[in-house]
TrEMBL record:
Domain of life: Bacteria
Cofactor note: Binds 1 zinc ion.
rRNA processing as UniProt keyword: yes
Subcellular location: Cytoplasm
UniProt entry keywords in alphabetical sequence: Cytoplasm, Endonuclease, Hydrolase, Metal-binding, Nuclease, Ribosome biogenesis, rRNA processing, Zinc
Pfam families membership: YbeY
Annotated organism of origin: Kribbella sancticallisti
The keyword Manganese belongs to this UniProt entry's keyword annotation: no
EC number in record: 3.1.-.-
Main localization category: cytoplasm
InterPro entries cross-referenced by the UniProt entry: MetalPrtase_cat_dom_sf_prd (IPR023091), YbeY (IPR002036), YbeY_CS (IPR020549)
Residues that hold Zn(2+) according to the record: H120, H124, H130
Record-given protein name: Endoribonuclease YbeY
Function field: Single strand-specific metallo-endoribonuclease involved in late-stage 70S ribosome quality control and in maturation of the 3' terminus of the 16S rRNA.
Length: 160
């Protein structure tokens, strides 16, 4: 799985950690092993501009996602990747300074918030949403299970 992280935020972030997490999530959701994802870390001004331009909402937000090839989680239980669609999953923009404020407020810190936002963004790229209560319950359930699996001892790809 090809994950590209471009940090234009001015904040030092573990790009390799975001790549490992993204690959873990994509693999867990049975995406084609050659699918692609782009993550861009941006400052608050850039995120505020994206927020207005794409959603007509003021101020910076934490994460935004732009799906590309409308990929969906794989349901192939045979373990054969041949039937999984190949493509570019999409692009995610993360704002580390917004994540830092949210992580502090939630009491789990910046990195845990960036992990949550990365998983959240990937789920949006795969068609998950949280506009309706039932959709939100499903998305939060999948998001929680993925984060729990990622954070479990011995389960993290490339864990040092």
């Amino acid at each position: 799985m090809n994950v590209e992280v471009n940090n234009e935020s001015g904040v030092e972030i573990d790009a390799n950690g975001l790549m490992r997490l993204s690959r873990f999530v994509m693999s867990s959701l049975r995406l084609h092993p050659e699918c692609e994802l782009s993550i861009k870390l941006v400052d608050e001004d850039t995120m505020a501009r994206y927020h207005v331009e794409f959603l007509d909402l003021p101020g910076p937000t934490d994460v935004m996602s732009w799906p590309m090839d409308e990929l969906r989680p794989g349901s192939n239980d045979s373990g054969d990747d041949a039937d999984l669609p190949l493509g570019h999953l999409g692009d995610i923009a993360l704002c580390p300074t917004v994540a830092a404020a949210q992580g502090a407020k939630a009491g789990h810190g910046t990195w845990a918030e960036l992990e949550l936002l990365t998983v959240h963004g990937i789920l949006h790229l795969l068609g998950y949403d949280h506009a309706e209560p039932a959709e939100k319950a499903e998305m939060w359930d999948v998001q929680g299970r993925l984060l729990e699996a990622w954070r479990a001892p011995g389960n993290r790809l490339g864990q040092e």
